[in-house]
Structure formats: structure tokens, C-alpha cells
Amino acid sequence: MLRNGLGKTLRFLGYTVQYGCIAHCAFEYLGGIVVCSGPSMEPTIQNSDIVFSENLSRHFYCIRKGDIVIVKSPNDPKSNICKRVIGLEGDKVCTSNPSDFLKSHSYVPKGHVWLEGDNLRNSTDSRCYGPVPYGLIRGRICFKIWPLNDFGFLRASPNGHRFLDD
Questions:
Q1: What is the pLDDT of residues 83-97, one digit of tens each?
Q2: What residues does the Peptidase S26 domain cover (predicted)?
Q3: CA–CA distance from 12 to each of 7, 18, 160 (Å)?
Q4: 86: which of 57, 79, 92, 114 lies 20 to 30 Å off by Cα?
């Protein structure tokens, strides 16, 4: 009786560890569902929108200008932020705010990306904390899940002119 109970318990623990490993790999390498908060990506992503983020792009270095990514915050490593990639390493980017009279430019250093929110007037992004290391990217947002009336692939940036190739 004790042997039977111990066998069932060990079998249950074995399955739990196996499924835990599978779940970890799925969320780490394939992707997951993310609830976005804050106004920085409006109008593309509204507060409380639910999106699907895939993680394979970051592992294969397939992040491109215009992609919306989930990134570990450079200011608070315990939180994630959602921003659009404006520049990749070696790109010349505008580092000033839209309202600035004199525009300043800089080059994105090796191994970094330049991130900005679509709502330029209400976004804390690379214009505040500088280029972000590529290693902080957690995933790339593929499409919006919720609200259902906005289900599908994300629309182009309202600030597309900020990352067009020269």
C-alpha cells in the first residue's frame, strides 16, 4: 500500500516536472500573451489591450525597424515595456523630441536598438534613457487579440517618418 502510494506520488512529480519544462520552453522560446498598459503606444496599442508576443525573432536576431517589441525596462528591470524599434545598430536616429526646434541626431551603437513609443508626447523611451541593449528584448508583438473588434495584425506606426531608411 505504501509502495503503491509512493509510486503514484513519484510518477505525479515526474509528470509535473516534465510539463513544467515544456511550459517554460514554450513561454521562453515560442511566445505568450501580454496585457499592455499605459498610453505610450497609442493609437496603435491602447491601455489594457491584449497582444501575442513571439520570442523566436529575438533569438534569431530577426528584429527589424518598425517592429513593436516587449523589452525589460532599462529603468526598472522588474517591469517590461512595449515600444517600437526605430533604429538598429549603426542607424542614424533623431534623438530630440518632436517639439524641439533644433533636431539632434546620433548613431545607435553596436548591440543596441533605439526604441520609441508611438505616442511621442507621452512616452518614456530611448529619447530619455538612450539606446537599449539587444539582450533586453523579450519578444516581438505579432498581433492584437483583444479587443475583438481590433483583432489582427498591428497597424503601421503613425511616426513612420522617424525610421525610414535614408
A1: 999 989 988 888 877
A2: 16-97, 103-146
A3: 9, 10, 53
A4: 79
